[in-house]
Amino acid sequence: MPIPSALACVRCGARYPLDHFAQDCAACRAAQAPANLTVAYDARPGEGLTPAAVPARPASLWRWQAFLPATADEAVSLGEGNTPLLPAPALGLGDVWIKDESRNPTWSFKDRLASGALTMARRFGARVIASSSSGNAGAAAAAYAAKAGLPCVVFTFVGASPPLIAQMRAYGAMVVTVEDKADRWRLQSAGVRQRGWYPTSPFFGPVVGSNPYGMEAYKTIAFEIAEAFDWDVPDWCVLPVCYGDALFGMWKGFEELKALGWIGRVPRFVAAEVSGSIAAALASGAAMPPERARNEASIATSIGASQGTVQALDVLRRCDGRAVTVDNETLARWVVTLGTREGIWPEPSSAAPFAAIERLRAQGVIAPQARCVALMTASGLKDTSVIETALPPAPVVRGGLDEVLHALRDVYGFADG
Ligand SMILES: Cc1ncc(COP(=O)(O)O)c(C=O)c1O
Ligand SMILES: [Zn+2]
């Protein structure tokens, strides 16, 4: 395990102490481009290891402990990571693979973040875990806090998806609902600054991203993808993006593999977003993604924030990536397409990468032969609203098989012979 030596700014490289995880880079904030911090080490992560010598155990992301700030022995783990990478030929999008993060313990990729953040929370002697989340991050924080034996406060808002709130409560989190979304950060901020609560999520604006130790665990998505393709990485990685935590973490993971010589190049990235904030900054050359108010609420509530982050924007600039803005109609179509053609049911935000690949293939930005990996970040069971409206309700049938055959024809258009 490499020893963490500092938290370094993702933008200017300024170094801060290891316990600076509840703050951003003071220099970049003064320069109007607030930026997150990331873990820096005393030695190159993975140094001395070879691809063939990466241990198979434990069966979690902690098998990559040679790249992480803590050991597998001290990890707060529920068996996160090791998710399948599945070919998706029936989507009509060419060479596309789905990294199915809905197979994680709380059915989203946020389990990686929570495992990384809670492991270090214990190391720092945290007493209380705090998260502001409309859903997946809060559910994951709640589960991993339970596993760590720590109390967890989750700030959420009126109108968040009911299954997600139930999930947080099931893991024993103290869920607090506010009417105005903006209040969540004000309250969490007071808890962190006045009571020393340990934050796993963003809690001040302009937003920079999440806890650096949690983000570090997202590197393992890149490691798993590279290993699955026998170290011949895909051309593009396409993600639903809100704060760009996973985008930054994956990019950092590929960079580390390249520095070791395990891979020859780093994939290009696409941020599929609903606000258009990162796309606007890429087009204008701005240092900070602008706030972008929308007329219509997005069905992808998990990525519904109106402003992107510097950490996401900078990765796209470094890898010549793209940002694609997706609308509700297209998202709903991809939710249904994935479920009915590939047997994978994404929550609405997780359908965004497929809409982005479709658009970029049509524009010729992603070449016809190029290989893409789409990050399928969370399960459709988190938010069933698209299915309720996009597909016919199940008919109630009385009588025998004739009535069943009628219903199949009338409701589903299916003629059996
Ligand atoms: C299902 C899902 N997909 C994507 C995202 C975006 O994640 P990130 O903040 O890493 O960009 C989130 C949460 O923010 C989410 O819950
Ligand atoms: Zn900085």
Q: What helical percentage do the residues reach?
A: 25-40%
Largest sheet: 6 strands, mixed
Bulk shape: globular
Overall CATH architecture of one domain:
3-Layer(aba) Sandwich
Q: Work out the radius of gyration.
A: 21 Å
Main sheet: strand order = 4-5-13-10-11-12
What is the count of DSSP helices, taking H or I runs of 4+ residues? 14
User: Bound compounds, please?
Assistant: pyridoxal-5'-phosphate, zinc ion
Element pattern in H and E: EEHEEEHEHEHEHEHHEHEHHEHHEHH
Mean pLDDT: 97
Class by alpha and beta content? alpha/beta
CATH class of one domain: Alpha Beta
Number of strands: 13
Strand content: 5-15%
- Unreliable parts: none
Query: What distance separates the N and C termini?
Result: 62 Å
CATH topology of one domain: Rossmann fold
Plain-language structure description:
The model has no long low-confidence stretch (mean pLDDT 97). Among the domains are: 85-105 and 218-383, Rossmann fold (3-Layer(aba) Sandwich); 110-212, Rossmann fold (3-Layer(aba) Sandwich), CATH 3.40.50.1100. It has a 6-stranded mixed β-sheet with strand order 4-5-13-10-11-12, with helices on both faces. Strands 8-7-6-9 form a 4-stranded parallel β-sheet, with helices on both faces. It is built from 14 helices and 13 strands. The chain has helices at 26-30, 110-123, 136-148, 162-170, 182-195, 212-216, 219-228, 245-260, 277-284, 310-318, 328-342, 352-363, 385-390, 401-412, and strands spanning 4-9, 15-16, 37-41, 85-87, 96-100, 129-132, 152-157, 174-178, 198-199, 236-240, 268-273, 322-325, 372-376. The protein is of the alpha/beta class and 417 residues long. The chain binds pyridoxal-5'-phosphate (PLP) and zinc ion. Zinc ion is lined by residues 9, 11-12, 14, 25, 27-28, 35.
